[in-house]
Structures are given as C-alpha cells and as structure tokens.
Amino acid sequence: MHFLDKLTHSVVPLRSLLRSLRIVHIKPTPRRIWNLVKVFSSMYISRLTRRQLIWGLPPILMVEPTNICNLQCPMCPSGNGDMRRDRGKLGLAEFKNLLDQVGPYIAQVQLWNQGEPFINKSFLDFVAYANSKGVMTQTSTNGHYIRSAEEAEAIVLSGLDQIIFSMDGTNAETYAKYRVGGNFETVIQALSFLSEARLRLKSKRPLIELQFIVFKHNQSEIDELVAIARKNKIDRIAFKSAQVYSAPQAAEFLPDDEQFRRYNFSGDQLTLKSEMPNWCQRLWLNGAVNWDGTVSPCCFDKDADHILGDLAKSDYREIWTAKKYRNFRRAVMTNRAAIPMCSNCTEGMEQPYARIVELNDL
Length: 362
Known about the structure:
By secondary structure, this protein is α/β, with parallel strands linked by helices. It is 36% helix and 15% strand. It has helices at 3-10, 17-20, 30-49, 77-80, 92-102, 123-132, 149-158, 172-178, 184-200, 222-231, 247-253, 282-285, 316-321, 323-335, and strands at 60-63, 108-110, 136-141, 162-166, 207-214, 236-241, 263-266, 269-272, 286-289, 294-296, 309-310, 354-358. It has a ten-stranded mixed beta sheet with strand order 11-10-9-1-2-3-4-5-6-12. A two-stranded antiparallel sheet has the order 7-8. Helix 6 links the parallel strand 2 and strand 3. Helix 5 packs parallel to helix 6 and helix 7 crosses helix 9 (184-200). It is globular, with a radius of gyration of 20 Å.
C-alpha cells in the first residue's frame, strides 16, 4: 500500500488533546495535576457559558531562546527579513526567574518560537534547569547546530524530552527550495549523530520527530521521508500543511493533495477551508514569552503586536490574569476574524495544521 493510503487509514487527526499539543508525557506532582484540572475546567466552562473564567496557569509555556535564524526561509519573518521587532537572545538568569515562578505548575516548556534555538549558547542550560523543575522540555530546530557526536551527546545528557527537526525535502535540491541557505547533508548528519548518541547512552529521550511541510515541490517525496526516518530510528513524523500569505506564494508552494492544503485557492482568491470559530483553546492552555521577556498570546504574534505584559515589570501569574490578557481573550471570543494575526491560523478549525504519525503505526 502506498504510504499516503496508509496515512489516510491509520491517522486520526488530533487523536487527543494532549497529542495535538505534542505533550509526550507529564511528570506528575500534586500541584501540576491540580493545575491541569483547574485549567481544563475553566476552559470548558468558559466555552460553554461564553464567559471568561481563568483558573490556574497554562500547562504549556512557549519560551523563545532567540528570534535570530541562520536560514532565509521565504515565508518566515525571521529568515526573510520581514520581522519588525528587535533581534536578541534570552538570558539564562531571566529564564531561571521565569521557571522559578511557573515551574511547579506547568507541564511543558516549548523552547522555540521564531529563530533557531541552538543559536542561543545557553540553550542546553535552559533545558537542564527546566528538567530540574520536573518540566517536560521540547524544541524545534533546523538541525544545523548538531555538528558532532559530542554535541549530540550533550543534548541527550541535558534531559531534553523531545526535538523536532524541520526537514522539508529528501534531497539537496528540494530541501533548499524552502530551507534557503541550509544544507541537506548537514541535517541528515545531525539526525544520525543524535540517533546514535541516544542509542549509545541507552536513552529513550529525546523523542525525535521529523516535521515535513508538504509543498508542491516535495509532495512526491513522502515515501522517501519515511525511509529516512526508519533508517535514523526516528520516532514520529508530523506532516504539516504550508502556511502562505499571498496568491503568488499559494501558486508556487501549495501541494495538489487536498489533505495537505488548509486553503481554498482559485486564481487570486485565497481563503482558509473552514470558518474561523470565535474561540481559541490556546488562550487557556498555552502562553508565549519572547526573548526580551515580553508576553504574547501565541507564536502567531510574530512581531509582538499584542504584548500582554512584560516579565521585567510583573510576574507571569499577574500577566496571565490581568486586564490586557482578559481583553484579548474577550476579543477572540467576540470576533476572532477581526484580529489579523488569527487570520492564517487553523486552531479550532476542522482541518488540523499537522498530521502526526508514529513510525510504529506504519
């Protein structure tokens, strides 16, 4: 059976809420479990009653190590030069202060946003400190900074729980079509280094996930990607639909296969396939902290146009429940389509942005 057929029959998108949020496991403590109960209860009550109720802290916190990147991906503001906010790197002291506030309650810290996380030389210190707090750690990388067996071993020994490799091609030509400035062989070597280090150290972590954005130019390579994953003992693959911003980009990049297209596209008309609900669970389950300590609603606020607080002035709990955050949630629950940063997001829509497949299921 062709792999696409297997994918259609074996994958149930968003099989569970935790899986959709890429939570591999939770390190339970009474406070952490109680926080989860409070957050999910308040979220469901808020959705049912359409009245905002905030209990607890978000179980997932995205923390941006840096918004600097070594690649020039054409639809990424960090790489293509469109980003308007200042560039920089998060300091270790600031990260520790944040984890001291929220560590006992949150389940996962996602160490990425815009930029390449490993550019921040304190990255593995971030991981180790979060691990010391019992918080699951996850990152997403383009793979260019895992350059030796020793660097791969350091990642395993840091306690990192999950690493996502962005790899949108199975050969040098198709990879470089979107990952401009990248080197396909460097990424393959990084995968090998990390897989071998995990085996050598007899560690089940980090879980390794390949993320494959399905474009027009790589849509025929899915079977080859699975072969690469098997060879390198990868745990799972996320097949992600491309996010585009204009009709010319849609014409160039959108694949033919409808299951990997989140848009209706005809001529110069580009619209999301499903209607946008006046709701977003991420405003209860996820928080986002930029490298400079400012707090945004989520990673779609790429230029920090909706700053909801500043950790230099307030602690995270105060920001999470403050008037600015409540006003933003209210705006989403009233007319989400009117918020520009939400216009290209599939959160809460019928078609998920990614299909996550365990290699053991294939």
